[in-house]
Hints:
Strand content: 25-35%
Number of domains: 1
CATH class: Alpha Beta
InterPro entries: Kinase-like_dom_sf, Prot_kinase_dom
Shape: globular
Number of strands: 3
Domain Protein kinase: 1-69
Protein name: Cell cycle serine/threonine-protein kinase cdc5/MSD2
Structural class: alpha+beta
CATH topology: Phosphorylase Kinase, domain 1
Organism: Modicella reniformis
GO molecular function: ATP binding; protein serine/threonine kinase activity
Amino acid sequence: GHRYAAKVIQKTELQSHKTRQKLFAEIKIHQSLKHENIVRYHNCFEDEDFVYLVLELCESKASVKSIQQ
Length: 69
């Protein structure tokens, strides 16, 4: 199976319309980006308390090092 990273957002942080719109824009942009140097978006789902963005997992040390720089 594949391993993924998850960005977890508490719904209590999405109470304002502006904040929700920013999240929707982030998801839409992430869905459209396809580049080897950009973490790939896989899915999004929610439960009562959280919204989860499922993203590509960067496991290689080279990837982490380049992000830190």
